[in-house]
Specification:
Two copies of one chain form a homodimer. Chain A is mostly helical. Chain A has a single domain, classed as Orthogonal Bundle (434 Repressor (Amino-terminal Domain)), CATH 1.10.260.40. In chain A, about 60% of the residues lie in helices and about 0% in strands. Chain A has helices at about 10-25, 30-35, 40-45, 55-65, 70. In chain A, helix 2 packs across helix 3. The longest helix of chain A is centred in the first third of the chain and has 16 residues, at about 10-25. Chain A is globular and about 30 Å long. The model of chain A has no long low-confidence stretch (mean pLDDT about 95).
Chain lengths: ~80, ~80
């Protein structure tokens, strides 16, 4: 596993994405397929190990049928 | 200037950041100082030329005294 420094915002975002994915009954693999991202990348995002970029945040929002602001509504620094 | 492909979400985000910065009467240089980012990087973000990462989105939100979701409230894909 590629290890990177974690950051509070990355950890909070990863937890939110994991919750949303599970609430839809999706495996990481199924979700990665819908979002057109790698399964291992999704795993890293959920663990807060990735400093995700805006374009990939948009892919995740689209895969969840949400707007980006909805991914961050209850995330505070 | 470093040129990169632009993306609709990067352009929309850049326009929003420019509007917010100007509404506070800040130059790119002053804003970059507050956000602890380079002035040229801020310029690239505002033009939609940068695929900004979550950690830098957080820095910009903090510099504007906003939560991340407020940066995206009226941005739609």
């Amino acid at each position: 596993m590629k290890r990177q420094n974690t950051n509070p915002i990355s950890v909070a975002f990863g937890n939110k994405i994991r919750d949303l994915r599970k609430s839809r009954g999706l495996s990481q693999e199924a979700f990665a397929g819908i979002a057109e991202l790698d399964r291992s990348y999704i795993g890293g995002v959920e663990r807060g190990n990735r400093n995700i970029s805006l374009i990939n945040i948009q892919k995740i929002a689209t895969a969840l049928n949400l707007e980006i602001f909805e991914l961050f509504k209850d995330i505070h620094e």
